[in-house]
Design a protein that fits this description.
Elements: E1 10-11, H1 46-57, E2 66-68, H2 69-90, H3 98-111, H4 113-119, H5 125-132, H6 137-149, E3 156-163, E4 166-176, H7 185-188, H8 192-211, H9 216-234, E5 252-254, H10 255-261, H11 267-273, E6 281-284, H12 287-299, H13 302-317, H14 323-337, H15 345-356, H16 358-369, H17 372-394, H18 401-412, E7 415-419, H19 437-453, E8 475-477, E9 482-486, H20 501-518, H21 539-557, E10 560-562, E11 565-566, H22 573-597, H23 608-619, E12 622-624, H24 626-635, H25 641-649, H26 653-659
Parallel strand pairs: 4-6, 7-9
Antiparallel strand pairs: 1-8, 2-12, 3-4, 5-6, 8-9, 10-11
Helix pairs in contact: 2-3, 2-15, 2-16, 3-15, 3-19, 5-13, 6-11, 6-13, 8-9, 8-14, 9-13, 14-24, 15-16, 17-18, 17-20, 17-22, 20-22, 20-23, 22-25, 23-25
Length: 678
């Protein structure tokens, strides 16, 4: 989950979106025996058994914080994007369509390292001058609005969001924000490792501010001011676990009530600065945060706020400026990621273009690398999994018939999005031109900002996508009641047309089942078939459901990741439920397919059921730096790959039967603590 304004859409996994040097066709070996570690029993540590060989032979590359199946495939996809962009940039643009010309120009401006070095901090000088000219509270608030419009996140988050309790409408939303470190705990936790990060962060802010012209003494003082303000904003911020409760994030109010909640801030001026003076209804996800931020605007000196604005402007632009900014940005970031080298410029620019001109590049990508046949195969698998999920709902012993009717209706109302959007974004109003790359980035941010805020007050556009087509991921959005599978993930090791059914059901089938189950996890289960936040459960059914989910939370709380650091079972609950449900549903779908088609012979000595679980395990193979692992444990709602493998399968009697595991084995959880939900 990012912020409440985007939020509640839940993903399958967090993929690294780095660009490869060249497009490399995927050489498919569905299940390579060399990746196994046969010195370990599958019943003792299935992750090590399935992936130990691969883990040993695939260390994290120097420019990455993590390396695994997601990253391998993402590199391949980004390599294909690089091929498209290199061609668009080299063609002279004379024969290209308008979007391809914009792609080529955007990418070329990013690649202009000579121009970036020559410009230094010049691309943000005018904005820095505007901040320096601020003389009073009114001008400060006007500058906050201006920087918001230019894509610089300050003080709080603001945007458009679907109304949780009226899913057909889009309203304005205000959420907590204004922080630079990964999470509120990085400001508030007294443990030494957090203290060290804070010390490093203050030094980083000071170094950056010196790069825009501040003296060393002023920069050091301003860095302390920034830390003080961000710490003040961190204190009333909700934790990530608290933000998993959609009811806790819903405080819909009128503009008059907003003014009463935070009376010191001139909201009409802010909304006007955003081009939406007509806003009359707003959801405030964390009223206590907004009250505290409003009070800080009065209590914190103006010069401190100006330092905060200078820092956030510089931080937002750093990756697009000269090498001095880029290198310092990487230096500090590496303390959190563990990456030892910076990605080459062409990879960074491919990534930036994918993030900026998302639909223009996505459309070019699917035209070359995704076939209608692949889309049809995926749709068939989705329908198969939905049929199995439907049948399982009818046989749940713990759920009443009344609640089953509601659950079945929700499943039937799922919208399936596969591959790419049916409607692409129109970039005709976006101007991309040669020159400073930051100018083009700001143009894209302003375009996206206008496009997003224009949705407020309009009916929900159900053709919207939250991911780009090349993304190696998938998601469920409870407000839309939709499951979405970008083209990028429908390749090996997730889906392979040359592989046997067991491998594809253990891979893509489990992905599909995972997203379907999100509609019925602890968060998704609070939304009805139309995507409204509404309790559709019978009281006794809901209590039984919570008992089952509590077992899963406790199970994952017990997993140790680094020294004394454990998985956060409450933060990762939704993903862990989706893994268990998705794997169970996909396994049932495989058994149905085997009954219809007949059982194939052993492959590499493994039965179809064993290959199903091995395919699931290979999705989660990874190596990760300790620094990145710590950040993910604090911020990521997904458990580490080892536990996404071992956690769900240890709850499945089908796994124990497939590998001959016995009660008492590490991979067999006792019936007394084994959840049976979906």
């Amino acid at each position: 989950m990012r912020q409440v304004l985007r939020a509640l859409a839940v993903t399958f996994g967090l993929a690294t979106s780095a660009a490869a040097q060249n497009a490399v066709p995927i050489q498919s070996v569905p299940l390579d025996p060399a990746n196994l570690d046969r010195s370990v029993s599958a019943c003792t540590d299935f992750y090590q058994f399935a992936n130990g060989g691969w883990v040993k032979n695939n260390p994290v590359p120097a420019a990455f914080s993590r390396w695994g199946s997601f990253d391998e495939l993402a590199e391949n996809n980004q390599g294909n994007l690089f091929t498209i962009l290199r061609s668009a940039a080299a063609s002279g643009n004379s024969q290209a369509n308008a979007d391809l010309r914009k792609l080529g120009t955007f990418y070329s401006s990013c690649m202009d390292s000579v121009g970036a070095e020559r410009a230094g901090a010049q691309p943000i000088k005018a904005e820095l001058d505007r901040i320096d000219a601020v003389k009073n509270r009114a001008q400060l608030e006007a500058e906050i609005a201006r920087l918001h419009a230019r894509g610089v996140p300050l003080l709080f988050g603001f945007g458009a969001q679907q109304d949780f309790k009226n899913s057909t409408s889009v309203i304005a939303g205000i959420g907590q924000g204004g922080l630079s470190l990964p999470d509120r705990d990085y400001y508030l936790n007294a443990e030494k490792r957090y203290v060290d990060i804070r010390t490093n962060y203050v030094d980083h802010v000071a170094r950056m501010l010196q790069l825009v012209g501040e003296s060393s003494s002023q920069a050091a003082a301003d860095a302390q001011k920034v830390m003080a303000i961000e710490t003040g904003l961190a204190k009333p911020a909700m934790t990530r676990v608290q933000m998993r409760d959609p009811n806790a994030l819903y405080h819909k109010m009128t503009s008059v009530e907003l003014a009463q909640l935070a009376p010191g801030f001139n909201w009409p001026t802010f909304f006007s600065g955003e081009g939406r003076a007509d806003i009359s209804t707003i959801n405030v996800s964390n009223p206590e945060f907004l009250k505290a931020a409003d009070a800080m605007l009065s209590s914190v000196p103006l010069d401190d706020w100006k330092a905060y604005l200078r820092w956030h402007l510089t931080d937002a632009a750093a990756g697009s400026l000269s090498s001095a900014f880029v290198s310092e940005d990487f230096r500090f970031g590496s303390t959190l990621s563990g990456a030892k080298e910076m990605l080459p410029r062409n990879k960074r620019c491919t990534r930036a273009t994918d993030a900026g001109l998302r639909d223009a590049l996505g459309q070019a990508y699917v035209a070359q690398y995704f076939t209608p046949q692949a889309k049809q195969r995926a749709l068939e698998m989705v329908r198969n999994l939905e049929s199995v999920f439907h049948d399982r709902l009818q046989t749940l012993g713990w759920m009443s018939d009344t609640t089953k009717v509601q659950a079945t209706a929700k499943l039937a109302a799922f919208t399936n999005k596969i591959g790419y959007p049916d409607k692409w974004r129109d970039y005709s109003t976006l101007t991309i031109k040669p020159g400073h790359f930051l100018d083009n980035q700001v143009a894209v941010r302003e375009y996206e900002r206008r496009r997003t805020l224009a949705r407020i007050g309009q009916p929900v556009d159900r053709t919207e996508w939250g991911m780009t087509p090349p993304t190696v991921n998938a998601y469920y959005n409870p407000s839309m009641n939709e499951i979405v599978f970008p083209a990028g993930i429908m390749q090996p090791p997730f889906f392979d047309p040359k592989a046997d059914d067991a491998v594809n059901y253990g891979g893509m089938g489990a992905v599909i089942g995972h997203e379907m189950t999100h509609g019925f996890d602890d968060q998704g289960a609070q939304f009805d078939a139309q995507g409204n936040l509404r309790n559709w459960w019978g009281a006794s059914d809901l209590e039984k459901f919570k008992r089952g989910t509590g077992l899963v939370a406790s199970q994952f709380d017990g997993y140790t990741v680094l020294d004394s650091v454990h998985v956060n079972g409450k933060l990762t609950l939704g993903e862990n439920l989706a893994d268990l449900g998705g794997l169970s549903v996909s396994y049932a779908a495989l058994e149905k397919a085997l009954a219809q088609k007949g059982r194939p012979a052993l492959i590499d000595g493994f039965t179809p059921e064993q290959r199903f679980f091995l395919a699931w395990a290979q999705i989660w193979r990874q190596n990760i730096t300790p620094e990145a692992q710590r950040v993910r444990i604090n911020t990521d709602p997904h458990s580490p790959g080892e536990w996404r493998t071992n956690g769900p399968v240890s709850n499945m009697p089908q796994f124990a039967a497939a590998f001959g595991c016995k009660p008492g084995d590490a991979m067999v959880r006792p019936d007394s603590v084994r959840p049976v939900i979906w």
